[in-house]
């Protein structure tokens, strides 16, 4: 008897669904796209109204042949690719290859890979959504035109092998703009003045605010030491009085459940996951993990989404869990969250498919990375449907003559969602004050004046860059990770201490694109194009109309750049290391596996040498080599001996000039800024040592 055929993208997804449905269904994988634009040519017929020239992807011939055979023998074919634009386009291409009617009801979609969700989708098959397909086609053609038209100009005028992209160029500009802000920043001096005071209930610190002028508290900025000394003279050190006391309450609400963007930000911030790794691990949780004898189970909903919507079924289940585990005071399961405008990619937030599968209860079946990410998702979702935390607050104005100091504090009286101790919520610290009474006299224990200087804006981390892109409406959440990977691999930016720094090449390319293709690097234009693509997805725009409107001005920019852009020479950093073949000073170049030393007289002299970043410490293992900073193939920093392979010393942490008291090996710095311990570089030694904090006085 003929089986029903279900086609998905991933073999893992196919295996999970296949075990859910039984023998009457056969589930196979397309392994991603089966048709696409050719890599070797533009693949877009500009003269024929931008008609895309799709071809079968090279190497997929045998797979396509098998899919055709399976479809021919099947009783019914269902296309079950992911529930977003990309998934819709894959189904559309599969329908074309297999000769299926695109208007026929052969498309099924679901937001989670659970037995109920998959079976319910089979009861309500639908036609392929052409609007979603067209939105994907519009993006694909637009990106192809930008990349394949600008890149050859950069090869000719700047350097071979360069690339430009509609989103990546805007991202590089954002990083370059931040670097220029930092370079042009002029620090300004300012001072703070704190009074350490003692009340009947204990000591606390208050900060200088300003002066009383006609009975009103007016803010005063302290810009110099002279300003501070003036205030110190005006203070009566024997007379500090609580003059205005305001008691109140505040509620701290939980954050919404995760979207793709917020998950990438928090995983970067708290788990130290790059965006690409976050999406890879989330994909594994979505497609299914084997939990003992029960077979693979999808643990989270679809992880490419802009929406914070939560289904009623998930709310009721979360309420049952909260009532059972914590009681009714903690229940707020029907709290509503509003998605940002343009949220089109999926119907729900990222959440656990079954909240009763707590992280601890399934930890034995998960890898360390899977467990940590699942715990983050599970806790954030459950917290989002719990009652807010309640605080008693106190705000006090303290007068000394006409000088005003202020102190504020809060006391947690009901923990609410904080009972979960979600890591993402540890950034808010309580500041407790003793019990104060209006009119109470206080004793001055110390006056502390500190000089400060304003700081330039920080370089972007992956988390802050993703948040900026989301706020500006640039790209889609699913494109953030690959875009960041691309600009790093192209050597447009470097990562140092987890922060992005534009390279000389990145700055040069950005300057050229800003001058000759201002439209491409403009963040407002890039965001506007995302809005246009969103309108296509809901049928408010036609994709070819959007491309036509873009290509007219773009074509003029192309002609202008071809004629007017001068050839740019990238200057390499000159070192004091002498070429041992011709005597020239070696320069630093960037290759496929990172920086290296090369002779500037290439091609006459083709001498190259590895670039050794020494940290000034002798190798503890061989004592002949020096410890050098290296990078793995995945870009992760580690430390090894300069005499490798003769010496195999290696350490993930940065060694310091301090020996382990247990085994004598070097201690290493923490691998994160939040680390509090030095660790032994010897992997067989577990010694850790608390870092002594230096006094700020």
Shape: globular
What is the total domain count?
6
User: What is the second-level CATH architecture of the largest domain?
Assistant: Orthogonal Bundle
What name does CATH use for the topology of the largest domain?
A: Topoisomerase I, domain 2
By CATH, the superfamily of the largest domain comes out as: Topoisomerase I, domain 2
Brief write-up:
The chain is built from 17 helices and 30 strands.
Explained architecture:
The chain has 697 residues and is an alpha+beta fold. It has six domains: 4-128, Rossmann fold; 137-184 and 458-564, Topoisomerase I, domain 2 (Orthogonal Bundle), CATH 1.10.460.10; 189-253 and 389-453, Distorted Sandwich (Topoisomerase I, domain 3), CATH 2.70.20.10; 260-384, Topoisomerase I, domain 4 (Orthogonal Bundle), CATH 1.10.290.10; 572-611, no CATH class; 616-697, no CATH class. The protein is 34% helix and 24% strand. The chain has a six-stranded antiparallel beta barrel with strand order 8-9-15-14-11-16. A four-stranded antiparallel beta sheet has the order 19-20-21-22, with no helix packed on it. A hairpin with an 8-residue loop joins strand 25 and strand 26. Helix 5 (130-157) runs antiparallel to helix 16 and helix 6 packs across helix 13. The termini are far apart.
Descriptive key words:
6 domains, 17 helices, alpha+beta, single chain, globular, Topoisomerase I, domain 3, four-stranded antiparallel beta sheet, Rossmann fold, 697 residues, Topoisomerase I, domain 2, six-stranded antiparallel barrel, 34% helix
């Amino acid at each position: 008897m003929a089986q029903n055929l279900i086609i998905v993208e991933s073999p893992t997804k196919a295996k999970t669904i296949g075990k859910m449905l039984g023998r009457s269904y056969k589930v196979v994988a397309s392994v991603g796209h089966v048709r696409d634009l050719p890599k070797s040519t533009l693949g877009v017929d500009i003269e024929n109204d931008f008609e895309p020239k799709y071809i079968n992807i090279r190497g997929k011939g045998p797979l396509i042949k098998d899919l055709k055979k399976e479809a021919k023998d099947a009783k019914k074919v269902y296309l079950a690719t992911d529930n977003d634009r990309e998934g819709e386009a894959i189904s559309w291409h599969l329908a074309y290859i297999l000769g299926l009617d695109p208007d026929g009801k052969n498309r099924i979609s679901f937001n989670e890979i659970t037995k109920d969700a998959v079976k319910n989708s089979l009861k309500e098959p639908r036609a392929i959504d052409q609007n979603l397909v067209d939105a994907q086609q519009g993006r694909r053609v637009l990106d192809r035109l930008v990349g394949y038209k600008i890149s050859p100009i950069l090869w000719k005028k700047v350097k071979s092998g360069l690339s430009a992209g509609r989103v990546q160029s805007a991202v590089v500009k954002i990083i370059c703009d931040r670097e220029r802000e930092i370079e042009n920043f002029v620090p300004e001096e300012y001072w703070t003045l704190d009074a350490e005071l003692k009340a009947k209930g204990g000591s606390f610190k208050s900060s200088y605010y300003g002066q009383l002028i006609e009975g009103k508290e007016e803010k005063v900025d302290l810009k110099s030491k002279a300003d501070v000394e003036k205030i110190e003279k005006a203070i009566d050190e024997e007379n500090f009085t609580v003059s205005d006391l305001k008691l109140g309450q505040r509620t701290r609400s939980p954050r919404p459940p995760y979207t793709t963007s917020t998950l990438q930000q928090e995983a970067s911030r708290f788990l130290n996951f790059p965006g690409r790794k976050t999406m890879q691990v989330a994909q594994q949780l979505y497609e299914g993990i084997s939990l003992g004898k029960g077979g693979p189970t999808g643990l989270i909903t679809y992880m490419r989404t802009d929406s914070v919507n939560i289904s009623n079924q998930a709310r009721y289940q979360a309420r049952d869990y909260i009532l059972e585990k914590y009681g009714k005071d903690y229940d707020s399961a029907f709290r509503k969250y509003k998605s940002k405008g343009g949220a089109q990619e999926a119907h729900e937030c990222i959440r656990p498919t079954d909240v009763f599968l707590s992280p601890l209860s399934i930890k034995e079946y998960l890898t360390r990375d899977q467990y940590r990410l699942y715990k983050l998702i599970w806790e954030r979702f459950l917290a989002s449907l719990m009652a807010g935390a309640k605080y008693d607050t106190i705000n006090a104005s303290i007068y000394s003559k006409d000088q005003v100091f202020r102190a504020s504090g809060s006391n947690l009286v009901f923990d609410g969602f904080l009972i979960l101790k979600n890591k993402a919520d540890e950034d808010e610290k309580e500041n407790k004050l003793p019990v104060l009474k209006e009119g109470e006299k206080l004793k001055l224990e110390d006056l502390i004046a500190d000089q400060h200087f304003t700081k330039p804006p920080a370089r972007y981390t992956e988390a802050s860059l993703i948040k900026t892109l989301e706020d500006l409406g640039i790209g889609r959440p699913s494109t953030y990770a690959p875009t960041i990977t691309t600009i790093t691999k192209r050597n447009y930016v470097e990562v140092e201490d987890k922060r992005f720094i534009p390279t000389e090449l990145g700055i040069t390319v950005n300057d050229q694109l800003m001058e000759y293709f201002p439209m491409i690097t403009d963040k407002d234009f890039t965001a506007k194009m995302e809005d246009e693509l969103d309108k296509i997805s809901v049928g408010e725009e036609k994709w070819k109309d959007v491309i036509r409107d873009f290509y007219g001005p773009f074509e003029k920019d192309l002609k202008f750049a071809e004629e007017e852009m001068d050839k740019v020479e990238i200057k390499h950093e000159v070192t004091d290391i002498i070429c041992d073949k011709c005597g020239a000073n070696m320069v630093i170049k960037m290759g496929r596996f990172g920086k290296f030393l090369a002779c500037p007289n290439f091609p006459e002299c083709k001498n190259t040498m590895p670039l050794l970043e020494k940290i000034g410490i002798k190798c503890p293992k061989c004592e002949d080599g020096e410890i050098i900073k290296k990078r793995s193939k995945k870009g992760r920093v580690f430390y090894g001996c300069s005499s490798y392979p003769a010496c195999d010393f290696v350490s993930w942490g940065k060694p310091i000039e301090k020996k382990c008291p247990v085994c004598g090996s070097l201690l290493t710095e923490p691998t994160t800024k939040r680390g509090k311990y030095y660790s032994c570089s010897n992997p067989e030694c577990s010694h850790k040592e608390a870092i002594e904090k230096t006094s700020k006085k």
